[in-house]
Design brief:
The strands form three sheets. Strands 2-1-3-4-7 form a five-stranded parallel beta sheet, sandwiched between helices. The chain starts with 7 loop residues before the first helix and ends in a 5-residue tail after the last helix. It contains 14 helices and nine strands. 45% of the residues are buried. The protein is 46% helix and 14% strand. The radius of gyration is 20 Å and the shape is globular. By secondary structure, it is an alpha/beta fold. The longest helix has 21 residues. The protein binds nicotinamide-adenine-dinucleotide and zinc ion.
């Protein structure tokens, strides 16, 4: 549901009644939105450090212990107010504390609005692998106020644009034409543009997960750009916060998947790869691969990915905007070629 943050405390009461409230947020947001968060009258306000490192078992134990110390009961509502980290982490705690408390997602980053708050995946990382532990635990209510994006740093907005580009390409030529024409200066956009971006992009994911909530078929299309993306993210040290961000890695992965689609003779218009790369660069996202990322390391990471079945390379390939296909057994040499071609700027 779209609305304004000021109206969300009432919206929660209307939907889920008067209950104890636990709010999860991160340190950045707790400071920037201190007053607005108090308006929710939280029984427990759990402020976690900002950043990926929060998504770990130690933080889960600490958070569950604080809920127990705060006498949080089974009827309580958990509200996650933040980006994907807070949503994944707080949502996971909600899914296991007392075998599950009703969850409300209030996404604050573009990634969270168009991607992570939708579809019910919540979870944490292991020291060796991202998002390996988790549950399917859909939010009872998702409350989205796109004007929260006004305080989001540009680089974080750009991370969300990588997913928005993915969604537009999965959706249709019309969606892609609309998205590629957006000026990459969101601070200058009117409110309506922010709302339209979030509404259009989130709708693409929503439509896909309604058809396939447990990722048995078409939901895998959402992994477009992610086979190589996850690998370069892992190899660059993404989880430690020092390497490529997820959005940056997806940007590289999208271009690689288009190149691969071209090499396999699927892409109808070869100009699409350059066009997409140009739009991503316009958002200051990378489309070339730095010398530190070596093919053997990236290939190993790809073959270890949890989405890989029996070591076969599985890619989502595109023939044109709106037409994606999952292809198993993509020859490693072709992926290597596409990867090595990206050493120099497209
Ligand atoms: N569950 C899913 O389906 C799914 C999908 C995609 C990504 N994810 C997960 O989401 C996480 C990434 O999410 P993210 O990109 O939102 O990262 P994030 O939660 O780390 O947020 C990015 C940064 O922006 C700040 N921030 C967020 N909203 C803000 C606002 N309105 N104003 C000012 N600052 C704000 C945060 O404090 C943080 O520093 C990863 O852990 C990823 O695995 C999950
Ligand atoms: Zn992603």
């Amino acid at each position: 549901m779209f609305g304004r943050l000021a109206g969300f405390p009432q919206a929660i009461e209307d939907r889920l009644g008067r209950a104890q409230r636990v709010i999860f947020t991160d340190a950045h947001l707790a400071e920037a939105y201190a007053e607005q968060l108090q308006a929710f009258c939280p029984d427990v306000l759990e402020v976690v450090p900002a950043g990926e490192a929060t998504k770990c078992f130690e933080s889960v134990i600490a958070a569950c212990s604080r809920l127990a110390a705060g006498a949080i009961e089974r009827s309580a509502v958990v509200i996650v107010f933040g980006g994907g980290v807070v949503g994944d982490f707080g949502g996971f705690v909600a899914s296991i504390y007392m075998r599950g408390l009703p969850l409300v997602q209030i996404p604050t980053s573009l990634v969270a609005m168009v991607d992570s708050s939708l579809g019910g995946k919540v979870g944490i990382n292991l020291p060796t692998a991202k998002n390996l532990v988790g549950s399917f635990y859909p939010a009872r209510v998702i409350l989205c106020d796109p004007s929260l994006l006004r305080s989001l740093p540009y680089s974080e907005f750009a991370n969300g644009m990588a997913e928005a580009v993915k969604h537009a390409l999965l959706d249709s030529q019309e969606h892609w034409d609309w998205l590629k024409a957006l000026e990459p200066r969101p601070t200058e956009w009117p409110e309506a543009s922010l709302e339209q971006l979030v509404a259009r992009s989130s709708q693409v994911k929503q439509n896909i997960i309604e058809q396939d909530p447990y990722e048995r078929s078409i939901r895998a299309h959402l992994n477009f750009g992610h086979t190589l993306g996850h690998a370069v993210e892992a190899v660059s040290g993404g989880m430690s916060g020092t390497g490529l961000s997820h959005g940056q890695a997806v940007s590289i992965g999208l271009v690689a998947s288009l190149k691969l689609s071209q090499k396999l003779g699927r892409l109808r218009h070869s100009g699409l790869t350059e066009e997409v790369a140009g739009v991503l660069r316009g958002w200051s996202l990378p489309t070339s691969i730095s010398p530190e990322l070596t093919w053997p390391a990236v290939e190993r990471a790809m073959r270890n990915d949890k989405k890989v079945k029996a070591g076969r390379l599985r890619f989502v390939l595109l023939s044109q905007p709106g037409e994606a296909e999952i292809v198993d057994n993509v020859p490693g040499e072709l992926v290597e070629q596409a990867f090595e071609e990206m050493r120099c700027e497209l």
